[in-house]
Structures are given as structure tokens and as C-alpha cells.
Recover the amino acids of this structure.
């Protein structure tokens, strides 16, 4: 591979060009400042590769997503969520024996320390579940002190996230919590812990279980997005996996990231209440004087149909039909999508539906309340965050993350005595 050449004034510098597995190219500027005294300027990091990673490949132009080399379509149709967790974290699909042990441990560790339950009593009923989850994950190491066993930490995080989410929901309703059952799958257990009550036992259907599995798998990783970069950033200081993942949850809570799925449903609901005013909302999204954006549309990386949105749209149709749910919001979503895909504003900017556009409708069909959508995303993303944290910590060459900046504030100025301050 030929080096890149950078000319600054009279001098020309050679910069190595690196090539990834899928022939993607990167100019290696890691020695730029030492060689030239310059830094690069890339607000929002749109052109910056922050690391080498072996976990997930995305080709946003062609709408491709692969975990550890496997197409998302194959994983979505043939794997379980715990298998995908194992794959992402350990780069291996578990064999029959490994799968049985992995499943058993994930169930055993879904019980949470009884003292932790006290925490839930003290969150106000208005607390957003994302704030609760982030706090509870950060608190986990206090209850499970350092045993220097990262594999145990990984199991605990995957297993207890599911329990913490379900407990937060039960507590918000004032209902008793439901303990997991060892003979249930990860997803069936979660649905039972959410929806069983002393008055009514809950048995989820295969369709519901499969729909949740699909949702979790599709959210499991997405390379260096905002929350994953946060996890790597925090972990680069050698903060624990719990502290790093808790920071990732906070990053995910923003409406431009994981919070978008909740906003999509709120937007669809507002359109419904206004008698199906899709045209009005499309016009608002295009109006530069209006801060409104079409939620669930656009993506920093995908400039083609998000493959996850394609799979979810298909699943939405199947699940709603099988559960005999007639959801007017699905019709509005389809209308909105059709109108946007024909509109030159969206076509020119390559704005397509992203994963959040249809996920909310599926969550709703499963009985998950709107304010818990982002928490469901966090549960799905947990293996991705852990995989990235582990990849970084296993790499002896990783340094603490510390970007530079271009200072554009005041130049040095004399400090005024208080009498002269206006
Ligand atoms: N509605 C209307 N216009 C949009 C939208 C949208 N949803 N998304 C982008 N645009 C416009 C921008 O205003 C910009 O227009 P301009 O060129 O005339 O200035 C152009 O499209 C390019 O957009 P960027 O801002 O460069 O896109 P960026 O990569 O910075 O942002 C983001 C991506 C945050 C996802 C954005 O598309 C957005 O806010 N979408 C809505 C929120 C959403 O759905 N988020 C979920 C993302 S997926 C996830 O996190 C799992």
C-alpha cells in the first residue's frame, strides 16, 4: 500500500495508509503531531478511526452489517441472543456444550443481591428507567466486590441487566418482583419477569420470544457509535467494565442516539392525534427554521437502508398479524416512510429509516411501555459494549483516550481587579 503524502508549506510528509479486512482505507496520522506539530480537526469524529477492531463490520453505503464476519441476516434468523453475546465477546459461536453452560450461568446470575432491591424503593416513580439502569449498573461492583474474574463480571452484566430492567418495571408498578426460572430461555425469562404477576402467570408465545430475540440481536453491536465510543473512552482509563458500561448507558439515553425509539413512537402518536398529518411532519422536518427532525430517519453511517430496519419492518408485520394487533401507528409509520423515500429532501441527503423507526412498534406489540424502549436497547447493546471494552483492555498497545482541540477562546489577557469588573 502506497503512503499518503501531506504537504505543509515547503515540506512534504509521508503518512502510512492502512487497509482493513474489507479493503477500507485509513491514513495513519498517529505520528502526525510529533512529525509536523499539527493536529487534525474532525468535529464529531466523522472521519476518524479511533481504533482497530475485529468485532463488527458496517458498510453504510451498501447497507451491510456483520458481527465477527457473520451477516446480520443469518444471525437474526438462526441464532439466539446468548449465542450472539458469546460470539461478540469471545469471537466464537458456542458449541452445544458451551451453549448449555453459558445459558445456565446466565440464568444463575440473573438473581440480584437482595440488598440492591432497597435502592429501587428510593427512586421516585417518575425516574426514567435509563437513569435507574445506569445507576444500578454502576452500583453492581459495590455488591460484587473485585474478584479479578472478568468472565464472571461479563456473565453478571449480561444476566443482571435483564433482571434489573424487569425489577425496575415491576417496582414502577408497585408489583412484587418475579424471579427467573432455570428452564426458560433468556428472552422468555425476561418477558416472564416483566409480565408475570401473582394473579396471572405469564407464558410468552414463540412469536413474542422470537420477536424479542430479533430486537436484542439487531441492537447487540454497531461498532464505534456514541455509547460504544464512550465505553471505550471511559475504559481506556482502566475504569472497570461496570463503570464503563454505566457511562455507555448514559450516552445511549440521548434522543439522538438510543432515545430516538421512544421519540419515534411519540412522533407517530402525535401524528395520529392530528388525524394522520404525515405531510405536516415531513414539511416540518425539511424546514431549516424548525428544529424538528423526523425521528427514526437518518444515520451517521448508513447512507442506504439500515439492514436492521428492513428486518424489523418484516417482523412487525408478522408479529402484529400473529398477535392480532391492529396498530394504527404501524400504518402511519409506513405512510411516513413511503412519503419520505419519495421526497427529494430525504433522497438527496440519503436519509432512510434507521433501526429505531420500527423497533418501537415491535416493543409496543410485546407490551413494553414507551418509556422503557431505550432500556431495551441498552439490554441488547450490553454484549457489544462488553466486547469493545474487553477488546480494548486485551490490547497491550491501547493508551488512555485523550483527543486534542483547537483553542479558539480569548488570548491571554490581564486579570482585572474587582473594582474594574462590570
Ligand atoms: N430529519 C430531517 N433532516 C435530517 C434528519 C432527520 N431525521 N437527519 C438528518 N437530516 C438532515 C440534516 O439536517 C442535514 O441537512 P443539511 O445538509 O441541509 O444541513 C443532513 O440531513 C445531514 O445530516 P447530518 O446532521 O449530517 O447527520 P448526522 O450524521 O450528523 O446525524 C443523526 C445523524 C443524529 C442520526 C440524524 O440523522 C438525526 O438526528 N436523526 C433523527 C434521530 C434518530 O433517529 N436517531 C437514531 C439514530 S440510530 C441510533 O442511534 C441507533
Amino acid at each position: 500500500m502506497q503512503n499518503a503524502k501531506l504537504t505543509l508549506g515547503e515540506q512534504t510528509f509521508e503518512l502510512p495508509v492502512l487497509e482493513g479486512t474489507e479493503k477500507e482505507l485509513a491514513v495513519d496520522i498517529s505520528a502526525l503531531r510529533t512529525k509536523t506539530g499539527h493536529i487534525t480537526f474532525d468535529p464529531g469524529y466523522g472521519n476518524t478511526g479511533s481504533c482497530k477492531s475485529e468485532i463488527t463490520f458496517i458498510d453504510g453505503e451498501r447497507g451491510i452489517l456483520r458481527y465477527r464476519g457473520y451477516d446480520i441476516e443469518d444471525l437474526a434468523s438462526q441464532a439466539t441472543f446468548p449465542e450472539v453475546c458469546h460470539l461478540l465477546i469471545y469471537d466464537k459461536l458456542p458449541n452445544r456444550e458451551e451453549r448449555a453452560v453459558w445459558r445456565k450461568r446466565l440464568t444463575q446470575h440473573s438473581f440480584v443481591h437482595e440488598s440492591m432491591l432497597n435502592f429501587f424503593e428510593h427512586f421516585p416513580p417518575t425516574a426514567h428507567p435509563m437513569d435507574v439502569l445506569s445507576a444500578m449498573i454502576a452500583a453492581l461492583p459495590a455488591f460484587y466486590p473485585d474478584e479479578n474474574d472478568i468472565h464472571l463480571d461479563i456473565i453478571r452484566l449480561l444476566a443482571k441487566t435483564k433482571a434489573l430492567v424487569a425489577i425496575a418495571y415491576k417496582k414502577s408498578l408497585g408489583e412484587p418482583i418475579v424471579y427467573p426460572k432455570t428452564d426458560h430461555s433468556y428472552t422468555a425469562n425476561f418477558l416472564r419477569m416483566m409480565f408475570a404477576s401473582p394473579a396471572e402467570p405469564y407464558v410468552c408465545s414463540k412469536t413474542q420470544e422470537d420477536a424479542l430475540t430479533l430486537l436484542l440481536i439487531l441492537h447487540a453491536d454497531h461498532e464505534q457509535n456514541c455509547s460504544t465510543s464512550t465505553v471505550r473512552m471511559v475504559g481506556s482509563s482502566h475504569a472497570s467494565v461496570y463503570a464503563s458500561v454505566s457511562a455507555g448507558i448514559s450516552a445511549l439515553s440521548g434522543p439522538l442516539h438510543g432515545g430516538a425509539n421512544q421519540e419515534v413512537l411519540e412522533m407517530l402518536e402525535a401524528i395520529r392525534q392530528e388525524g394522520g398529518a404525515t405531510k405536516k411532519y415531513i414539511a416540518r422536518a425539511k424546514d431549516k427554521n424548525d428544529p424538528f427532525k423526523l425521528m427514526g430517519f437518518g444515520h451517521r453511517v448508513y447512507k442506504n437502508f439500515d439492514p436492521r430496519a428492513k428486518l424489523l419492518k418484516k417482523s412487525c408485520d408478522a408479529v402484529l398479524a400473529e398477535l392480532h394487533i391492529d396498530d394504527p401507528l404501524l400504518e402511519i409509520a409506513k405512510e411516513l416512510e413511503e412519503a419520505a423515500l419519495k421526497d427529494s429532501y430525504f433522497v438527496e441527503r440519503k436519509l432512510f429509516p434507521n433501526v429505531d423507526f420500527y423497533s418501537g412498534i415491535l416493543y409496543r406489540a410485546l407490551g413494553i411501555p414507551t418509556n422503557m424502549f431505550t432500556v431495551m436497547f441498552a439490554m441488547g447493546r450490553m454484549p457489544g459494549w462488553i466486547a469493545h471494552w474487553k477488546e480494548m483492555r486485551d490490547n497491550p498497545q491501547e493508551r488512555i483516550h485523550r483527543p486534542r482541540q483547537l483553542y479558539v477562546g480569548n488570548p491571554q489577557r490581564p486579570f482585572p481587579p474587582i473594582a474594574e469588573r462590570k
Notes: Strands lie at 4-8, 11-15, 17-19, 25-27, 56-59, 64-67, 70-71. The chain has a mean pLDDT of 93. The CA atoms of residues 392 and 398 lie 6 Å apart.
